[in-house]
Design a protein that fits this description.
Structural class: alpha/beta
CATH superfamily: NAD(P)-binding Rossmann-like Domain
CATH class: Alpha Beta
Helix content: 40-55%
Bound molecules: NADP nicotinamide-adenine-dinucleotide phosphate
Radius of gyration: 17 Å
Number of domains: 1
Number of strands: 7
Length: about 240
Amino acid sequence: MDYKNKIALITGANSGIGEATAHRLAARGCTIIVNGRREAENQRVVAALQSQHGVKAEAWTGDVADEGNCLQMIEKVFSDHGRLDLLVNNAGIGVSGDRVAENPTEQFERVMKTNLYSAYWLSREVFRRMETQAIAEDSGLRGAIINIASILGVQAWAGAGVYAASKHGMMGLTRAMADEGEKAGIRVSAVCPAMVATPMTGKTGSDYIQPEDIAASVTYLLELSPAAWPTEIVIPRRGCS
Ligand SMILES: NC(=O)c1ccc[n+]([C@@H]2O[C@H](COP(=O)([O-])OP(=O)(O)OC[C@H]3O[C@@H](n4cnc5c(N)ncnc54)[C@H](OP(=O)(O)O)[C@@H]3O)[C@@H](O)[C@H]2O)c1
């Protein structure tokens, strides 16, 4: 995979897994579009990517839980760059440990819009446009969409119902779009980690999966030959079932 001349849009790229992924791709020469709601944090990451890796980077500040914002962002990316090689649907929020029986509708809606609808809106818009792109010689594909789901996309337990529902939804979308992508030449795949040391979990230290581990699984997926077609990589945490 030749990352130079490739353009990646990463949602939620100003923190945790998204930020680590932005750095890993930029270190290989990729142009990065950094999304998140906080403009100052987006600009901090853009400046770091430019100064540390000498790549082009820009911010698109906006809430992906809003369909209009998602459509605008994709319009702008394609009108400015003419193509997109990689979409990483990473923006997401966690939820309190409420049982489903106590969970308020507003929270369910907020989690679904942020974690699932955003991936649906963005993937739908990007997939359609990627289908019209030429196949890249180095990857043998027209583009890739990688979803940062969760181990709660393939398992669920008490207190995690709403988050798990959003990530199970993301897995349904991933598996169906991976199938649709086979013919179209668009890789669609998900990474499903257990607990990662990021601001979302507030965990730090070597007992936890590192954001860089997830970034490495994104580049692993991108570097596969075009016949290798995994729909997901599940990353459990040592010592946890
Ligand atoms: N940490 C874990 O243990 C873990 C495990 C499995 C899966 N995941 C998934 O990995 C992804 C990243 O999580 P993380 O741990 O890196 O979290 P994080 O450090 O809290 O980062 C979340 C990112 O998403 C952005 N974001 C949140 N809501 C958004 C919205 N509505 N529109 C645009 N951007 C939004 C945030 O930026 P702004 O605040 O500026 O918007 C931030 O950049 C999430 O989808 C999460 O569910 C995390």
